[in-house]
Amino acid sequence: MRRSAGWRRWWPEAAAAAGLLIAPFVLPFLGFSPDTVNRIVVWGLFGLGFDLLFGYTGLLSFGQSAFFGTGGFIAAYLLTKNLIASVLLALCIGTIGAAIAGVLVGLIALRRTGIYFAMITVAIAEVFFFVENSPLSDYTGGENGIPGVPAPAFDLGFLKFQVGTGWSMYWFLAACFFVGLVIARRIVASPVGAILVAIRDNPQRVQALGHSTGAYKLVIFVIAAAYAGFAGGLLGVLQGYMPPDAFTFDTSGQLVIQTVIGGTGTLFGPLAGAAVWLYLRDFLQGPMGLGNAWRLGLGLIFVLLVCFLRRGIIGGIRQLFARPPAPAPEETPIALAAPTLVSVGPAARRRVPENGHSGPILQAQGLTKRYGGLLANRDITFSVEEGELRGVIGPNGAGKSTFFKMLTCEVPPTSGTIRFHGHDITGRGVAQVCQLGLTKSYQVNQLFVRLTVRQNVTIAALAERRGMFKPDLLRGLHRVPGLDVQVEQTLALVNLSARADTPVAELAYGEKRRLEIGLALASSPTLLLLDEPLAGMSPRERAETVQLLRNIRRGRTLVIVEHDMDAMFDLAERITVLHEGTLLAEGTPAEIQRNSFVQEAYLGGVAAA
Amino acid sequence: MLSWPNFFSQFFNGLALGALLALISSGLTIIYGTLGVLNLAHGAMFMLGGYAGFVAWQHTGSFALAVLAGSLFMVVVGVLIERVVIRNFYRRPHEDQILVTFGIGIVLVELVRLGFGSDTVSIQPPAWAMGVTPLGFLIYPTYRIVVLGIAAAALLVLYFVLYRTRIGMIVRAGIEDSGMVDILGINVNHVFMLVFGIGAMAAGFAGIVNAPVVALTPDAGDTILVETFVVVVIGGVGSFPGAVLGGLIAGEILSLTSMVDPSYSEVMLFAVMTLVLVLRPQGLLGQQDRA
Q1: Residue A168: CB partners within 8 Å, gap ≥ 6?
Q2: Cβ-based neighbour number of residue B158 at 10 Å
Q3: Which of A15, A324, A443, B178 is least enclosed, having the fewest CB within 10 Å?
Q4: What is the pLDDT of residues A28-37, one digit of tens each?
């Protein structure tokens, strides 16, 4: 995500263009027929969308055949019935048709994640096959498909160009692939692309940071469907015939296999995988005379790659050339002595509409949470003044975490209301509440472990900069106004600037804890909840984090749940004590220390006696 | 044709098909519930079981021996696959597990294709189960009644094993929380291996029993796999009762709608699945937090 010199950003496109240009002059010597190359290009284009969906976003669909077939049959129908003369226009209409199908399927399939998603996509793709085969067979030709799909012809006035077969067709397909590649790379480099990769890692945190995960998933699902639809149309044009097996499970399976063999998350993987698949098919079936055994060979290769080289061919090559990870630099301690020099980070931005409210920033009234027979919180009334640093303590099982989850709207209360800046936020989603400026850092780190520190913070800052959802698919990530500044300020505040380009997996525990707080900070909250920020830290890390908390509290309102009493009595102005799900006491640290109920709750009956 | 005999005949077909689907789906669902792995090779295992039964039947001529030998063969295959491949995937993401079982499925299918070709093969039912049985107002193929009986019996055995034996209790505890079972000092590895073997056997057993009804091809598992997914989505992933209920529902939908128009029966099945997903996303008998 780092800003790189102009030409270097474009080298993959340039390399792809060069590769596509020289392919017809090189590949024949390796035994590729023009027809094989053309199929590779079509499958490569099909795979661009699938790689965005699976490789980047982590959504494994086994139903892409539905869109491949839809796009293909719409285009073929329009062309063969002479409803539309222009091949390119028909292809575009087919693409739109596939995208619409993508919206409908996505709305159903994306209701669930993981294995459910995979199963549902399989099942829905089967529906498309059956519908094509029987009810719509008057239009699609049923088992016969649609023959006689014409090749495109271009008339530019001064130049007429009729696409034929073989290499003539190749130039048309290659041009389509190149355009598809450029668009896909733009999407990857856009803010949406950054969020998609984060969704693959940890969708819940993406949502908690204020992004509408569902909307982004649907967008990429539809984009993948559109790529599939366009590729399906090209298949008909290439063959002069639209085959019904475009709709079969085998088509979806072949796409998955090719993408994994080539390498997911690379965009070029599907192309490479298609080359391996089709070359092996030609080679093993023809010269080797193995007949059907080529599929067995491919199956074995596929299983071995999944077991031992999940990155695929392109990923493996990349890994060979990757630089070894840089050693961790000597840590500079958080500026303990000169707080005036410390960056204050992104300013807390008030995003709640002005309503003349002047009372407490947060007011919870009668909060109760019941899990079946278990009463986790009972009738808690709680308010925090603007600018305050509030501590919440309580023995294990006092209901602190449930209480926090209700305040950030991660779980809805059974009864009671929550007001933020005077607005009732009860029952709103966690993303909406984060957008209003109320967020939390987690007790157990919820980071994007496959991304770098800077990328992590960027995801958080993007939510604040762009809102819950914005389909700016073709805009460069660094063109989001104010984003880079906000990210750098946050990194400086949590003292991770020197580690900005380190993958999270390589961070030390203390650094991960600081990044966890940094994620919450980067969304510029007016009210920040911290769930046990000192948990599991060494004494030195504790001292540093306490200093960090002092630094970040300026200009912000903080509520901290913590077990470390010394730190809490030192930091907080007021302390709330929870015990057995209810509010036990509230007051200044000195009052709380003297309170006999609190002593009893912590030390048992002995202190009270 | 809409008539009472036809309706009942289709209804019984639905029961037999449903019981088979329930059996196959139980295998898939207990594997997922216990191991956390979605087995995309399940359709291939159904098919492989059929071929194993076919080989045994060819050599012995006995249907009972074919069922027995084929089932045992599938347990061995399941255990081997778990030991050699699946075991290394418990700590890897769901996608990788799906991919590797998908690959295993392809390898199994292509191995069978290599050995037996793409032409269909079929097993003959035992002599006493051939022909038709009069059921009052309706004449019904005897073997279909046998299928219903065998599948129902197999489901009962599975129920007994899961709910009335020590190993079944461990498996059900593993479905709830396999980590906890491990902590309690039970060797989860052995349980996982056994469950995968049982799951593979359930699919393979169904494959053999179904072989006299529908002829076998190497691709026979594809449709079954998809239908099994639908069953599990309807019933709820990881739930044995859900698999049984979902199986019966799916069997009846497929059979009864084909009475009106066969080309719409699969579509109807998926329409019901979509309805369940919209109204009750965790499946009819599934739990909220699974998957």
Answers
A1: none
A2: 23
A3: A324
A4: 898 889 999 9
Exposed e or buried b for every residue in A277-304, given b needs 16+ CB within 10 A?
bbbbbbebeeeeebeebbbbbbbebbbe
- Selected residue with higher pLDDT from A366 and A98: A98
Which sequence spans correspond to the domains of chain A? 26-319
Q: What angle do CA A542, A407, A427 make, to 5 degrees?
A: 155
Min Cα separation A170/chain B (Å): 31
Residue whose tokens read 């603007």:
A386
Using a CB–CB cutoff of 8 Å, tell me whether B32 touches chain A. Answer: yes
Task: Specify the DSSP class assigned to residue A9.
Answer: H
Q: In what order do the strands lie in the sheet with A415-420?
A: A374-384, A362-371, A415-420, A423-424
Q: Is the per-residue pLDDT at B44 higher than 70?
A: yes
Three-state SS string over A285-326 comes to HCCCCCCCHHHHHHHHHHHHHHHHCCCHHHHHHHHHHCCCCC
Contact B263 A296 (CB under 8 A): no
Residues in B 231-290 with any Cβ partner in A closer than 8 A: 232-233, 237, 263-264, 266-267, 270, 273-274, 277-278, 281
- The residue among A180, A228, A177 whose CA lies nearest residue A67 is A228
pLDDT for position A172: 93
Query: Do A364 and A416 meet the contact criterion of CB atoms below 8 Å apart?
Result: yes
Q: A113-142 b/e with 16+ CB inside 10 Å = b?
A: bbbbbbbbbbbbbbbbbbbbbbeeeeebbe
Q: The tokens of B27 are what?
A: 């295998």
Give which of B84, B26, B53, B86 is closest to B236, Cα–Cα: B26
Closest CA to A104 of A120, A89, A88: A120
How many Cα atoms are found within 13 Å in the side-chain-facing hemisphere of A163? 24
For residue B106, the model assigns a pLDDT of 94
- The reported pLDDT for the residue numbered B88 is 92
Q: Which residue has the tokens 């990530």?
A: A477
Predicted pLDDT of residue A523: 87
In the numeric block, the tokens 């006689």 are attached to A148
Rounded Cα distance, A584 and A381, in Å: 11
Instruction: Write out chain B residues lying below 8 Å of A61, CB-based.
Output: none
How far from A475 is each of A185, A190, A236, A460, B208, CA to CA, in Å? 11, 5, 33, 18, 57
| Geometric angle at alpha carbon A103, from A101 and A106, rounded to 5° | 105
Q: What is the pLDDT of residues A203-240, one digit of tens each?
A: 999 999 999 999 999 999 999 999 999 999 999 999 99
- Judged against a pLDDT cut of 60, whether residue A442 lies above it is answered with yes
Q: Which of B12, B257, B18 is nearest to B135 (CA)?
A: B12
Nearest CA in chain B to A293: B114
Query: What was the ipTM of the complex prediction?
Result: 0.90
In this prediction, residue A271 carries a pLDDT of: 96
pTM for the whole structure: 0.91
3-class state of residue B138 by DSSP: strand
Instruction: Identify the band that residue B20 occupies on the pLDDT scale cut at 50, 70 and 90.
Output: very high
Query: β-pairing, A527-531 with A438-441?
Result: parallel
Angle, helices B188-210 vs B142-164, to 10°: value is 170
Summarize the confidence of residues B234-242 as an average pLDDT.
89
Residue B17: partners with Cβ closer than 8 Å, 6 or more residues away:
B250, B251, B254, B255
pLDDT computed for residue A334 by the predictor: 55
User: pLDDT band at residue B138, thresholds of 50, 70 and 90?
Assistant: confident
Query: In the prediction, which pLDDT does A339 show?
Result: 41
